Amino acid sequence: MKIHVLIHSDFEQPGYIDIWAENNNFEVVRINCRENQVYPDINEVDRLLIMGGVMGAYETDKYNWLTTELVFIKNVIDTGKK
Prior knowledge:
By secondary structure, this protein is of the alpha/beta class. Helix content is 26%, strand content 20%. A 3-stranded parallel β-sheet has the order 2-1-3, covered by helices on one side. β1 (2-7), α1 (16-23) and β2 form a beta-alpha-beta unit. The longest helix is centred in the last third of the chain and has 13 residues, at 66-78. The chain is globular, with a radius of gyration of 13 Å. 15% of the residues are buried. The model has no long low-confidence stretch (mean pLDDT 92).
């Protein structure tokens, strides 16, 4: 089982969730949203964790990578995954 973590800033990390994941047999997959525009296939995502950042979800004009991320998040939500 995999938890995909969307990271927007280097100082934002999953912290204790890493420990919980290890104790519960989850693999943590980090995605740096500022640098990565390729997201995994929805079937590979068991859980999704979205970390914070300096941007607002409405600031797609200021953060060009945000639109792709929002589509990915919507697709994960639409499948009913946690």
